[in-house]
């Protein structure tokens, strides 16, 4: 059973404790009512955990109904408690000029009356909740719901097809099989190498890992003294597994005997294999500890053994060794597999041509969604085969992929295979993965945006091990990549910035989200709204718009919606903001709000934690935004906003503020936002620049800061800047962009964990705070007027530096120097740009061993013995030739020498010379 049945219980228990111990001045009797709720909810939480641990197909229907009731009740209780806490913490008063001021008296009177109404409301809510809780408890007792699994008929492992499918039926397997055999060193008739070799096939469910391993097994097993093939599964019986492996290898049945244990079996296996050339496949490993135990049974002899493992978990593959990333089918093989399963044999359709011209367009769209995953193609093929050659029916199937395929045996089988990975996730990751169902298919999902939504929804419960909630969220995101549930997207610096989710995984999580009433989505085809038994919408996602949906959608209650994520095509369906009572996440990114939607009632969303208004074309924010006391993220980038309301300083829980970066005027009291961890696109102007810099020094929790200024630098401003930066000890990524000014920041001590440093203004020389002690520095961009050889050597000793962009002013100053990049320098550098050096640079043997991309300028008269052939990993070279009065013949000679160096280079790097 899915862990989402837990609803909001985990976070709710914490909040109930806060209400009891906090200074909330509860009405008489209410504290006792809450104390009654706590043990009841704890008991229900324990029962739900038992249900969550039962396989979903073995949970009794009564258990499912009861779990659903408790889940929905937990959401309602948390909404009531949140509302109470928000209203009690909301200071409606205004500062007065004196204790007898009539205005202050009026505000105090209003506060007392408001406070009384709030406490009376929570008292009424708690009593109502108590009644509902008792009803749920009694219903559980009446129907004897105990979370126990009901006996079910034996189920067949839906992955068995991969073991017993004929190799001749597997489309496109031959090339991949031969590639893996070559990887194992078994691709020729020569005497096999005596060293052992391990290959670990990794990829998400349905890619054909087991089928590939089976194909390799069938091809080369005759070359070995003995062979074995065993499947591990998620919760293996190690004794049973070792018996199966020993039986496979020896060809004898291993009878159960008294005293036969894991150690005996391991010793038997080692003894049998010690002098043999063996080939073993360990299929479907989920946990590295299981692999380590199995590895004990396989001796590391010198007989040329081969081991293949398959896994969905990247960490497991990396620790096993010999990672082989499973690739999807190419477009032609995808077509052959689809058409052969629908229309006939693979031989008949080996040319990958659709036999029916009217189905070409729709089949191409279907295959694009399947993205070369054999399991997905086979599943869809089974659906299409039942539709005949009706083009409209095929389009209907196409449109349902990633939205919610029709139920059939094959679709259920596919979901079951994919769900093995889902149910292997810890409970905290399952909720985070399900939240991705709000995004459309083929969407590139920004990592930071997603993590901040998770935080706003309390899907990341608490900080741990000194990490902020955002940093914990990054570990969650990376875990989903590691488990092959999402596919990472990298920026130019090999940093993961976003992700994709395969349409088949998206179909699975949308199916699960619908089952658990986690997300309700308007697809543009139909509305996946809650059934009458679900009653309420908790998370609303609007993808597309159709006129016939407008009335039905707007009549649905928004009072209990926690997240509203709207995409541009559906903005006309978005209900008014005043219809939301407990909204935590409001994401309207790239929706055109100037005409289609109003932020008039934004200030009434007291529960709001995330507000995404990027590229919405708004030109102002309402002053009432100051009412959003719980707001954590505010993204107003790419908007023509010139002034921010002064009330923004009231957002004391704000951790992320992303500004438009287009001359936006920011209040000088920004230092009050002491919870900020990210402040991006800040612009410092002439007026009040020193005050803004001083205020920044109060933001001691900042991890990310990007800023620019359009003011002249002076001693006072530089001093303020150094004092400010020395207070920001948690900074990890810093970018300062300004005009053509010089500022040396003398006295700055860099934070120890700085990883990205972009300083786009002039330093007179390389500052002394750039030194090899910066072990975490990964990217450095800096402008230095004068550079010396010893400066380059210091940079070369930065141990983790991967990207270096270094501008000097030698050409402008008329300085000509020859630099040398010595052996073992820049050990981690991947990309390097040297600009305006005004001389030349020589690369010695052993320098920059990992460098792939180099751009540098060179003086033609000094362009001899550059040593480009010593850069063994080089893939791309850009050379800017500075003529310096050289003749055209000399220029051409240098060009020819550089071209020759690239032609004889082992990697033949791409060359751009100008």
TrEMBL record:
Disease resistance protein winged helix domain sequence ranges: 438-509
Disease resistance N-terminal domain: residues covered: 8-95
Keyword annotations of the record: Coiled coil, Leucine-rich repeat, Nucleotide-binding, Plant defense, Repeat
Keyword Nucleotide-binding included in the entry's annotation: yes
Database matches in SUPFAM superfamilies: L domain-like (SSF52058), P-loop containing nucleoside triphosphate hydrolases (SSF52540)
Superkingdom of source: Eukaryota
GO biological process terms held by the UniProt record: defense response to bacterium; innate immune response-activating signaling pathway; plant-type hypersensitive response
Molecular function (Gene Ontology), one example: nucleotide binding
Domain spans labelled NB-ARC: 178-340
Pfam families linked to this entry: LRR_14, NB-ARC, Rx_N, WHD_DRP
Domain Disease resistance R13L4/SHOC-2-like LRR stretches: 560-911
Family membership: Belongs to the disease resistance NB-LRR family.
Name under which the protein is recorded: Uncharacterized protein
Organism: Urochloa decumbens
